[in-house]
Amino acid sequence: MFVDSGRFQIEKSKDINPYIAYCGILSYGKDGLDILIKSFEIFHRTHPEYRLKLIGRAVSSDEMTSLKNLCKQVGIEDSVDFTGQILPSKMPRLLVDAKVLALARPNNLQAQNGFPTKLGEYLSTGNPVVVTSVGEIPFFIKDGVNGYLAKPDDPNCFAEKLCWVADNYQEACMVAVEGRKLAENEFSYKTQSKVLFELMNRK
To answer: In the chain, how many H helices and how many E strands?
Structure first.
């Protein structure tokens, strides 16, 4: 993975209402947006000041309609922002200004292989990250050490992690510092370029 961590080395905006952010393709299958929405509904019962910001375009118009209908069904449609597709130059600001970054990937075939690039970007912000324990993610993310791991396909577990982070935010921010170090040491394009160069020049 190649992540330009420098893009996220910007100061947070002041006086921003708290929000949890997801960034990527909006779909049920790939990143479990239905799980995230259900988790946020549970979280929102005790943390009504938070919003959920879903950044990116949907797989299809039908998928977008379905996700918006789900928000309405669980009663949080007024607390969820669908931003649509965002320019790459504006993406760092939206991620850095979030209180928490979330990825509720389901335990499907796609998730079992690889490590999502967006997670490297999440970590680079220095914000607390809540993610499901699928694929190669738990090889790098250690619960309560450099991020927070939830069981996949379990909205209640994911909501519990979100609540813990919100209720213990200072400690969560210290964990997030370790997450940023992980991104800089393991996923930085500078580090990975050296690794690739060494591999290519082995005899």
So the answer is: 8, 6
| CB contact at 8 A, 41 and 52 | no
User: What's the token pair of residue 52?
Assistant: 């959920």
Contacts of 135 (CB under 8 A, 6+ apart): 105, 111, 112, 113, 114, 115
- Residue pointed to by tokens 């979330």: 102
Q: What is the largest CA-CA distance in the chain?
A: 61
Report the b/e string of 21-58 with b at 16+ CB within 10 A.
Answer: bbbbebbbbbbbbbbbbbbbbbbbeebeebbbbbbbeb
List pLDDT tens digits, range 37-69. 999 999 999 999 999 999 999 989 999 999 999
Residue 59, CA distances (Å) to 35, 117, 137 in order: 16, 18, 24
Strands 100-103 and 19-23: parallel
Amino acid present at 100: V
Are 127 and 96 in contact by the 8 Å Cβ rule? The answer is: yes
pLDDT of residue 27: 87
This prediction's pTM? 0.90
Comparing CA positions, the residue from 8, 176, 184 lying closest to residue 94 is: 8
